[in-house]
Amino acid sequence: MSDTAWSFVFAGRRLLLKSTGDGASVPTSQDVAGLLEALGPNAERFDVVLPALRGRDSRLHAVPDDFEAPDGFELTALRATHALLDKPFFRAAGTARQKIEWVRTHRFCSRCGAPTERGTGHEAMECTTCGQLHFARLTPAIIVLIQRGREALLGRSPHFTPGVYSTLAGFVEPGESLEECVRREIQEEVGVRVTNLQYFGSQPHPFPHSLMVGFIADWESGDIRLEPDELEDARWFTPETMPDLPHRMSIARALIEDFIKRVGS
């Protein structure tokens, strides 16, 4: 790889960016060569495949979580980079984060405990003793906008930013279809039944390794009954009464904006 390869350097969940006059950008290998050299073995390199950006290769590194960015650089939480980076770079940063997480958490075989190494025939970590292949973890989750005429059912977790409501979501369980997961999660979280499921779209969600699969569903029956371990509130909203909404980068926001566009204001 050349010195012009993009370098995705993570300190925990924070991405190292090069400060510019009007924002920040992903640095090149030449930009970070000095600081990585100074860190020596504390700067770990990951030789995994990352789709090329603008025809240039990429390198992935992890530095200690308490690393302090030198002058001319900044460390930014991955979510916050959405406002700083073009979409291809944000997507690439998310992919880099997931692949670093995969390699760091699969250094030993979960079957026999022996060390693993990069596989040759697959992008996998291969056990050096039993040959078991360990692929990057991917956790599917459903996210659903429930509609009832001109109303959409939105809820809020106690972990959300104050005032923000969002579409409902949950992880798919083993042996469960996506549609079965939608019906189960909605009934568990808010106590209603849904029908007429329609696929909306999907979005990689690298926090750290989910895939969000979006649906639109019609309310069928039932009143809101909260599962307090999941939600602190859920309500029906019209386009005119919408609360604070999730970040524009999210499929949740896309589902809500699609609903508003379809039913009109």
Structure description:
The protein has three domains: 6-97, no CATH class; 105-136; 139-263, Nucleoside Triphosphate Pyrophosphohydrolase. The termini are far apart. By secondary structure, the chain is α+β, with helices and mostly antiparallel strands. The longest helix is centred in the middle third of the chain and has 18 residues, at 87-104. Strands 1, 2, 3, 4, 5 and 6 form a six-stranded mixed beta sheet that branches. Strands 10, 11, 12, 13, 14 and 15 form a six-stranded mixed beta sheet that branches. Strands 7-8-9 form a three-stranded antiparallel beta sheet, with no helix packed on it. The protein has helices spanning 29-39, 87-104, 178-190, 251-263, and strands at 6-11, 14-20, 23-25, 44-46, 58-63, 73-77, 116-118, 125-127, 133-134, 139-148, 151-156, 168-171, 193-205, 210-221, 233-237.
Kindly state the mean pLDDT as a whole number? 93
Which structural class best describes the helix and strand composition? alpha+beta
Q: What percentage of amino acids are in beta strands?
A: 25-35%
Uncertain stretches: none
Global shape: globular
* Biggest pleated sheet: 6 strands, mixed
H/E element order: EEEHEEEHEEEEEEHEEEH
CATH fold-level topology of the largest domain: Nucleoside Triphosphate Pyrophosphohydrolase
Q: Roughly how many Å is the radius of gyration?
A: 21 Å
Portion in helices: 10-25%
Q: How many structural domains can be distinguished in the coordinates?
A: 3
Query: What is the first-to-last residue Cα distance?
Result: 52 Å
